[in-house]
Amino acid sequence: MKKQNLILALMLGAALALACSGGGDKNTSSTNTTDKKEQPANTDKAKSSDSAQDANVFTHKEGGITFEVPSGWKATPDGDNMTVSSADGGLQVVFWVPDENSFDDAVKDLDKELSKTIKNTKTIGKPTTDTHNGMPHYGESGTGDVNGATIAWSVDVLAAKKPVIILSFAAPNLYQKNSADYEKLINSVKKIS
User: Fold this and answer.
1) What is the pLDDT of residue 31?
2) How many whole angstroms separate alpha carbon 117 and alpha carbon 155?
3) Whole-angstrom Cα distance, residue 123 to residue 147?
4) What CA–CA distances, in Å, run from 24 to 8, 15, 21, 167?
5) Dihedral of the alpha carbons of 131, 193, 85, 90, in degrees to the nearest 10
6) pTM of the entire structure?
7) Residue 34: what pLDDT?
8) Which residue blocks in 21-160 are alpha helix, DSSP H?
9) Residues of the chain with pLDDT under 70
């Protein structure tokens, strides 16, 4: 459970930064997006080939995935986790491998872990269960409060080599501002063959 507590601490820090910057707008609505971000440990930047684009490709060996960080975005490894943030710092995506060893167990424990930090959680729409780039996928999104700041969040669980959780959060208006790059990031997540 240490990894989840670290993720929730990262969320708390980001929510405080959003609140201090005025990003926690309580009167905006969020969009229902899927596939979140943050990278677990054992994250290696892929070796660059002839393309400058390859410099932004990361591999999460433990989870068994690769993904491409949009140009201008920052990727910060922290032990078993990786946080990817938009150029303006307003949208945070955390990748990690949970303690649970199965996809179903990881999905089952999501609400319990999120509720430790996010209060007044409201989901938007129904959770989805489908596939993402050939991997079983569970996605859920909503809004909630962290230390008085309203955030929009989304969480994706992928069944790759191990379950991988991608948690995204921002002030609701900052999701919309960064939506095109965010979609590129999420769409780039692939299982290592």
Assistant:
1) 31
2) 14
3) 19
4) 17, 8, 8, 18
5) -10
6) 0.76
7) 35
8) 103-108, 110-114
9) 1-54, 79-80
